[in-house]
Amino acid sequence: MAVTSSTKGELFLVSKASQSVLRRVELDVKAESLCAVPGTRRVLVADGRGTLCCVDTATEPATVACVAGSAHHAGGAMRLTSVAAWDERTCFAAGAVRGDKTRCSVRRVDLVKNEVAEDALLEAPMVRALLAEPDRGRLLAGAIDCADEESDDCATRLVALHASNDFAGPPEILATVDFFVHAASRHSEDVYVLLARHSGSKWEAPVKVVRLHAAGHSVLASVQGIHATLPISHGGAIAGLSYAGLMGGVFGVRAGREHAMAVAPDGTLVTGCVDKSSRGILQLWNLEVPDAAAGTGSTETTAAA
Question: Which SUPFAM superfamilies match (predicted)?
Fold first, then answer.
């Protein structure tokens, strides 16, 4: 797994199998989001100060380069909030002009020419979740109706921008959910996992599992249990005994303050958190989702308006 620390601006490569940090790369950025570039060992990191950083982990030491910056954008320097790579040549980045708390935009970035497109593909008060789906020819984005990330009174429209339309035009609304979606990941053919800030109790995984369909979406009654809790110190090591590890491993308590989430190829759910000692905490969850043949197990169905 590739993991970033916003506090120290570091990139960690973490082995899920051995539960150890394999590599640490110093970036000196305010990391807000990251993504893997398909077909490569490169990782893109969105810097909250307005640049995209590319880390090539195939070299020793790792090669770090600024891919593209928003400082010369017509609207002014942007505070980047998310990034998603489409392929080796193109990625999409979300960000807001500094000082503007009510308008976030999604733009295309040419990784070869190091250029940020002037035209916004999508605008919303806040966009945190971006998910590229080249196999389906679409980019998913979570358009949040408020910019306050500490608010528990937000709704998110999960929308699709289609490659067949050059990602332009009115977005297709796939679902509307009544929580702040901080990240999105695809679990299977039509099942997605959404990181829901300020949702659920400390005994529950901080995610909602939804099945998208033509009529809208269904929230699935999935089963989640903590497999492991891995606190990462600034020195680039998994901390041994920790309060978060004890509470997660013995009592199944989530770490809280989740900022990131991904679903591994084997279906394991990983959430990234920060505790009060400023350690980065990874929690691995066993995620069990009922298949469509067994019924949706849905607790809610909402039409995509």
Answer: YVTN repeat-like/Quinoprotein amine dehydrogenase
